[in-house]
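Exercise 7.
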Amino acid sequence: MAGSQWRPPRSCDVYWSEFKHCKSLFNRFHEYYTYGKAPDCQQWKQDYYTCKEWEKNQSTHAKESLQESERRRVAEQRKFTPVWELRQTPPDDWHLPLNQDKPQDS
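Solution. The predicted structure, written as C-alpha cells, is:
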C-alpha cells in the first residue's frame, strides 16, 4: 500500500481499550492467578500514543513501530502449542452409528 493509504491494524481507540482492560483489577488478578505475575501493559499504551502520532503526522517511524508491535503480538500468539493433536484422517469407525445406550467409558 502507498504510505498515505496505510491504516494501523487497529483503531487507536482499540489500543486504549486494550490498555484499560490490561490495567483492570479483574485482568490483573486473572493474569496473576494464571501466570504468576502481573501483566505488562505498557506496550498497549505505547501503541496508542504511536497510533495517535500516526494519525497526526503520518510518520514512517510510527508506521514501522506499529507494524513491528503487531508482528510481535502475532508471533507471541503462535508460539503456544495446540491443546489438541490434529488428525490427518478421520477415525476408522466414523460412519458407524453412535452407541447412545452404552456408557462412554469402556
